[in-house]
Amino acid sequence: RDRSWTGARVHALQLCPQVLAEKRSLGSRDGPPHLVVLVPLHSRAAAHDTLRLLQSQDSAVVRVDEGRAGGFALLCPRLKQRWRFVTAQAGDLHAVLDLAKVADSLLFILDPADGWDSAGEHCLSCLFTQGLPSYALAVPGGTDLPPKKRIDARKKLAKAIEKRFPEAKLFPLNTEQESSLLLRHLATQKQRHLAFRDRRAHLLAYAAEFVPGRESDLVGTLKVSGFVRGQTLNVNSLVHIVGHGDFQMSQVDAPPDPLTLNPRVVKGQKRSQDMEVQDDSLNGTDEMEEDVKVLMKADPNKQESLQSEVVPDPMEGEQTWPTEEELQEAEASLKANRRVVKVPKGTSKYQAAWIVDDGEEGDQEDDDDEDDDIDDDMMEEAVSQEGESSEEEEEPAEEECETMTISECLRDDQYDEKVEEDEQMLERYKQERMDEMFPDEVDTPRDVPARVRFQKYRGLKSFRTSPWDPKENLPRDYARIFQFQDFSRTRKHLFRQIEKEETEGASVGWYVTLHVCNVPVSVMESFREGKPLVLFSLLPHEQKMSVLNFLVCRHPSNSEPVRAKEELIFHCGFRRFRASPLFSQHTSADKHKLERFLRLDAALVVTVYAPITFPPASVLLFKQRSNGMHDLIATGSLLSVDPDRIVIKRLVLSGHPFKIFTKMAVVRYMFFNREDVMWFKPVELRTKWGRRGHIKEPLGTHGHMKCHFDGQLKSQDTVLLNLYKRVFPKWTYDPHVPEPVPWVRSESALPVQEVEME
C-alpha cells in the first residue's frame, strides 16, 4: 500500500510541471492568446454591454480592435497576459459550434430574468454533446429593477442553472470592477480538455487572403493567418477547413505577431494591406507585415496524399490462366478419383459418370413414431375433406372474389383523394407503430413467388451463434474504401507517437500564415461574410473513406419518426457532413439486427460511409426541415471504424394454424403455392408462444403445409419463419452542409439535464 501511494505521488509530482507550464503558456508571450467566445443565450442578453465593459479597463490594458463587429483583443503587459474575444452570431448554430471547437473559454451571456430562451436551450444541448471547454456565466443588466426584485430574480436564476451548471458561479457584469473579476476568473480557472482537438493542430483564422489560380479564378491559394494551438503543425500534413473539406499546404510563413506584448515592437513595424481581417463589411482590412519569413515548404515526397478512395480494378476478381503446376495437380486429382465401372457398349464418358454401382445404393426409409402415423392419417382425411369441399365451391368463390376486388379499389381511390395532404406523415407514424407492434413482420406477396421475392435472404439456426462470413457478397462500394488490419492498434500507435515523438513544424503559440492549395473562392466569401474560419490538421489516414459506426441516443426534444437511410446531418468531432445511415442494435455479438426506425428508448449504432476519424469524438445528428431549420434528433460518440461489422435485416413471415393435432399442425397463409413451401422447407419455424418446429411436407397446391413442433400449439398462436440478409449503407457522403435557418426563439425554456461529452 505504501509503495502504490508513493508511486502515485511521484507520478502526480511529474505531472505538476507539465500542468503548470501549460497553464502559464496560455495567454502569455510564448503561447497563443486566451481565446474567449461570447455566446448570448437569450434574445435580450446584452452582449454589446458586455463587450463595452470588457474593453473599458485601466490604462495598463491595451485594446487592439480587429475591425469586425464584436471582435477585439486585450493586452496587459503588466500581467503578461493577452486575450482575444470573439462574439458568436446570434442564431447561427454552425458558427457557435465551430468557435467552440477551438475556444479556450466560453462566456455565456444570460438574461437577468429568464436566463436563456428556447434557442439558447437548443444551443446548450449541442454544446454539451460536442464537448464543453472551460466556461463562465455572466449576467449583464438588471440594475433597473428594484433591489428586492433584483434579489428574487438572482435567486430564481441561480436555481435554474443548477441543473445545467451545478458548480458554476454567476458573475454580474455592470461595473468595471466586476469585469476585472471576470477577466481574473477566465485567466486562472482550470482548463478543460477536449480529446479530439488536443491531439491535432488547429487554429482560428485572424486574417486571410485569396490568390486566384492561373487556370481559374474560382480556385486558388488561400493564405490563412492565426495562432497555432493544440499540437505542432507540420506543412506536409493535410488540413481540414471545417465545413469545406480537406486540402494540402504548400508552405508556412512566420509574419510578425500582431498581438505582441511589447509595444515598442508594434511602433517600429512596417505594415501593408495584403491580408484581409474578418469583417462584417467587405471593406474591412488589416495591415500586415511586408517582411515575412518562410518557415518551411512542403516536400512532395513526404506530403500526405489527398486520395480518399481506392480506385477499384474491374479485372482484379477475374480468373487468370492456370500455371503448369496447377494443371499437373488437377490431372493427378483426376487420376486418383477414377473408378472402373461395367457399362454397355456405346456408352459415353458423360453417361458412364451417372451409372451407380449396386453397392452404393442404400435404403433411405424414415422411421416415424406411432403418434406421427396417427396424425398423418387424421390429417390426410382432414385435407381430403377440405379439398372435396373446395372443389365443389371453387367457381362461386372466384366470382365473389372478383366483384369484391373491384369495389375495394373504388373505395381506396376515393379515400386516397380525401387524405392526400397528410398521407406522407401519417404513413410514417403508421409504419413506426406497426414496426413496434409486429417487429420485422411482412406480408407474403400474392403476385410474386416468395422464393423469388426473398431470394437474397437465408435462414439461420441461431441468430447469435450461426456463422456469417463478413467478406461474403460485398457491394461495389466496399472496393472504394480503406480498412485497417487492426484499427485499435493503429490508433494506439499514432497517439503514442504524438505524445512521445517531436514533430517538425510550427510550434504551439506561433503566429503563422498557411498557404492552402486548391481552395474554392467560396471559402473566402464565407470568411468575408463574418463566418469563422477554423482549420484542423489531419492525422495519418484521416482523409480516407471507410465505414464509421456511432453509438447514439435519441434526444428528448424530438420525437418525430426517423427512418433508416434518410439523409441526416452529422457533426462528428471537427467534421460536418451529410449521409444516409443505417440503424442497428448495440450488442456484443458478431451480428447486429437492423432497426428500421431510430428508437426513443434504446441506444442504437449508426453506420455510414465517411472519412476515417480516430476516437474519441462526439457526434450530433440533425435532420433538416422543409423550411431549412436543423432539428437535433440524436447525440452520442464515435464507436469504431469497422467495415466488417455485420448488420442483418430480418424478415418475419407469419402463418396461422388451421388444424391442430398432438405435435402436428396444418399451417396456412404463410405461402400460397406448393413450390414456395418446398423452397423454405429447411428453415426452422417458431411461434410467438415459444414453440419450435419444421416443415414436413406441403399439402395441396395453395400453400398449406404440414408442420411438426416440439409441443401442441394453441389456437391463438402464430407460426413465424425468420429470414435474414446483410445490408449496407448508401454512399451519399457530402461534406457540404447548407447553413441552417436561425432557430425560432421563445421567451423561456425549461432546462433539461444531459450528459456532457469530453
TrEMBL record:
Pfam families: AARP2CN, RIBIOP_C, Tsr1_G-like
Span of domain Bms1-type G: 32-192
Manganese in keyword set: no
Chain residue ranges for the region called Disordered: 264-332, 352-403
GO molecular function terms noted in the UniProt entry: GTP binding; GTPase activity; U3 snoRNA binding
GO cellular component term of the entry, any: nucleolus
UniProt protein name: Pre-rRNA-processing protein TSR1 homolog
